[in-house]
Structures are given as structure tokens and as C-alpha cells.
Amino acid sequence: MRVPAAAVVSFGKQQHVLAQRRQMTAADWTAIGRRLAIGGRARRPPGSGRKSGHPTIIPSPASQRAKSLLAAALAVAGIGVAAALAKAEYERRSARRSPKSKLQRATLAQIDLAIALLEGRSEVPPGQTVHETRKALKRARALVRLQRTALGAKRCRRLQTALRDCGHQLAVARDAEVVVDTLEELIRRHPKQLAHSPGVALLRERLIAERGRVEAHTRHGAPTRAGVLERLRATRLDLERWKPRQGDRATAREGLHDIYRQGRRRRKRARGAKTSASLHDWRKRVKDLRYAAEALKLREVARTADRLGETIGAEHDLWLLSQRLRRHRDLFQGDRPARKALRRLIAQRRRRLRKRAFRLGGELYRRPPKRFVRRALSK
Questions:
Q1: Which helix (H) or strand (E) holds 16?
Q2: pTM of the predicted model, to two decimals?
Q3: Torsion of CA 317, 320, 324, 327, to 10 degrees
Q4: Average pLDDT of the chain?
């Protein structure tokens, strides 16, 4: 069956196509030229009925420019958003693909622990929060020192300064706590001379009151805790962005050598000075050696360093108690013999602890640094 061809009626330069369907003629005028009116009523062949206008097919130059500018702006914005999303996805996948070293992960874990403790997201009792936070910061500092050569001097110094400042802001609460424990231990050791002394009882009450005020200020002091948390988060981000360029073994060898050598030097200085300050400086390097040894699974070295650090720490706590005793001498107005006895017992205990510390230090630091590192890491 043949279909009749559509009739074409020519109207000058403008053409209309007529399509015949049954007995009805339905044709829309289609503009071919650019100068025709846009969006007007439909033009039809003569004799046709009224029909609705047709939508715009070819836009005007002004509207076309506006739409072009809008499309360009949307394209640029879309490219910017797409680029930002692509960059974020690339960084996320790169971070996943670039594995962190074990020492770096261990350092980040200690910083995360300190943040969780300060935010109250741990099972540690509130009275132990500050102490455990400072321990986590000390471990993080020791691990940073262990990675000093890999981190670089500038980054290592920046991380060490930030972690040290955070620890110092919490040190007041720790000192207030240990002096009470030290006094109570002396009372248990020498009950006949101290347990029934009114002056010692007043001193104990004063120290407990000071501890309560400091702990309350540290626990509920929003500025101090918020400042420490902000500094720790920035420090964590700085460390997380670092990409190690050498393996853990080479990093540990160089870092352990430096930590051990500094400990030997501090021991020699403390032996010559024989002051609590020099012993305390030595203790910092002993703690670094202990935490570095724990990270490297050098159990024997870690145990000896732990014993030495606790011994020097006990001597420092007694020194703090002697300072409190001097500050609160007015509490012993009617009980001066008890004050003299307490001072004597503190001095005797400090001498014994110093003697034990140097004995343990001689055992721990008896080898030169190179031989120590070679022997420790060869196992």
C-alpha cells in the first residue's frame, strides 16, 4: 500500500510542510530563517483553523548569550566541585594505600589515648586521669625521640615541644597528688615517730586540701583542658601527615643510640652534681629508654629502666615533700621535734634512693652506645 507524499507549499523563502492525516490537515509552521519572530503565534497555510503558538526553537542572540554565560558558570562550578571531590577521594585512598610505620602508629595511639582520657572516654577513674594522661604523653615523647632522625630535627622539635607543654600544664595536679602519697608512705614506715604527731596530721590535712583544689581545677577547668586538647589534636594531625621514608629498623637503630647516649651523659652529670634537679633530668632520659625498649620489645632493658626510673622518681617525690614542709613550717609551731624528725627521715630516704639509683644506672649504662644498640637489636 502506498502512502501519498506530503504536499509542499512554497511561500517565498519560508516553507510550510503540510501533512495529511485522513480528512484533517495539521501542519505547524517551522521557522527556517534566523530573522523570523521567535515565540510568536504559529503561522499556517491559508484556510487553516486557529492553533496554539509553538515553543521557541531558536533563541534570540541576547538570551543565547545569557544562557551561554550561565552554562559556562555552571560548568566552571561543576569542575571546581568535581576537582575538590576528586582531590579528597585521592587523599583518602592515598592515605589508605600509604601504610604508616609501626613506630608512627604506636605514637599516634598514645596521643589518642591522652585525648580520650582528657575527654572522659575511658574507664580510668577520675582521680587517675591526669596521671595516666601524663604517662601517655611521656610514651609519645619517647617514641618521637626514637624517630628523631627519620622525622627530621625541625618536626621532631615541634612535636616534642607540643607534647612537653601539654604535660607541663598537667604537672601541678600530679605533684599535689604524689606529695600526699609520699607523706603517707613515710608515716607507714615510721609510725612511732610520725603517726601521732599533731604537726604531721595538720600537714597531711593541708596537703590533701591542696590536692583536692588542684584536681578540681584540672578536672573542671575548661580553659586548661580545652587548650591541652586543642594542642594535642593539632600535634596528632602533624604527625599523621608525616610519611616515613625509611624502615622501622633503621629508625630504631639511630634513635635508640641517641637515647642511650644521652642517658649515659645525664647519669655522669647527676653523679657529679648530686642534686635532685640533675637526677630528675637523668630520669627523663631513663624514661625515654624504658618506653623505647617497650616499643622495640627489649624486655630486660625495659624492666631495668623501669626500676631505675621509679627509684629516681621516688627521690624526686621526697624532694617535693621537703619543699612543702618548708613552706608549711608554721603548722609545727607546737611540735618542732616532729618537724625535725620528718626532715631527717626524708633526707635518709633520699640518700638510700640515690645510692640505689646509681647502682642500677651503672648496670643499665655499662656498655658504650654502639655496643648496646648492636647487642639489643641483634636478638
A1: strand 14-21
A2: 0.70
A3: 170
A4: 79
